[in-house]
């Protein structure tokens, strides 16, 4: 399977930055996924907006952190375009933002000699497919997914925050294969253990704190491991 996550991080004043390709990633706090580590970095210029910055395909997304004493992203957008994100913008890329009220909009840009300039705002309607996709992505990038987010992504209860900060839940592949998924992010999870029944997977998750292996699994697909007393012939495919 091709690597699902390709990322690189850099520091930008007032922002935490994560470039995302293939629409798969996680940001918001230090997190390790597929061998890559990302971490929020904060810089502060008095009263400038503070925000999270995500690039997904052809979109550059500015997410207002709504922090006391700082300008809103919308009020600071001309400076953000000129100073913070100018190197990321091209005529092929669109700049969108989420304001402190959670509303999405697009920043209209003009280019002179290859340099982007602020040209106005265009709201994104709640019905737009782009806004719906951004609303789904954002919790997993810049904060923990809610229960509703996890249900929308297809995960089943119980949901649990493990001792190491990973989010875990159950994902049913078919009647005889249920994954205890750990490290859930925007479009999947980092790790999983397979169980033969939903009940056994749910019971194992309730008892597991994220250290070592849970009890009762029959396959760890990421490594190909099986419990020492398990026979590969017992695997249910």
Per-chain topology:
Elements: E1 7-8, E2 11-12, E3 15-20, E4 31-33, E5 36-38, E6 51-56, E7 59-64, H1 77-84, E8 94-98, E9 104-112, E10 115-123, H2 129-142, H3 147-152, E11 156-161, E12 167-174, E13 177-185, E14 188-195, H4 198-207
Parallel strand pairs: 3-6, 7-8
Antiparallel strand pairs: 1-3, 2-3, 4-5, 6-7, 8-9, 9-10, 11-12, 12-13, 13-14
How would you sum up this structure, described in words?
The protein has two domains: 7-142, no CATH class; 147-234, no CATH class. 16% of the residues lie in helices and 35% in strands. The chain is built from four helices and 14 strands. It has helices spanning 77-84, 129-142, 147-152, 198-207; strands at residues 7-8, 11-12, 15-20, 31-33, 36-38, 51-56, 59-64, 94-98, 104-112, 115-123, 156-161, 167-174, 177-185, 188-195. Strands 1, 2, 3, 6, 7, 8, 9 and 10 form an eight-stranded mixed sheet that branches. The protein has a four-stranded antiparallel sheet with strand order 11-12-13-14. Strands 4-5 form a two-stranded antiparallel sheet. It is elongated, with a radius of gyration of 21 Å.
């Amino acid at each position: 399977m091709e690597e699902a996550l390709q990322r690189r991080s850099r520091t930008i004043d007032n922002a935490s930055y994560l470039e995302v390709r293939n629409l798969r990633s996680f940001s918001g706090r230090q997190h390790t996924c597929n061998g890559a580590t990302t971490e929020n970095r904060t810089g502060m210029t008095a009263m400038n907006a503070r925000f999270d910055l995500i690039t997904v395909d052809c979109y550059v997304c500015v997410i207002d952190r709504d922090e006391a004493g700082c300008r809103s992203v919308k009020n600071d957008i001309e400076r953000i375009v000129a100073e913070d994100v100018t190197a990321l913008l091209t005529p092929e890329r669109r700049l969108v933002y989420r304001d402190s009220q959670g509303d999405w909009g697009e920043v209209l840009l003009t280019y002179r000699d290859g340099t982007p300039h602020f040209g106005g705002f265009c709201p994104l309607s709640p019905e737009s497919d782009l806004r719906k996709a951004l609303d789904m992505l954002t919790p997993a990038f810049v904060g923990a997914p809610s229960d509703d987010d996890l249900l929308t992504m297809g995960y089943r209860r119980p949901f649990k925050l493990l001792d190491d900060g990973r989010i875990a839940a159950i994902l049913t592949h078919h009647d005889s294969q249920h994954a205890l998924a750990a490290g859930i992010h925007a479009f999947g999870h980092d790790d999983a253990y397979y169980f033969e029944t939903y009940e056994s997977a749910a019971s194992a998750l309730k008892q597991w704190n994220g250290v070592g292996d849970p009890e009762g699994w029959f396959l760890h697909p990421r490594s190909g491991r099986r419990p020492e007393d398990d026979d590969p012939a017992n695997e249910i495919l």
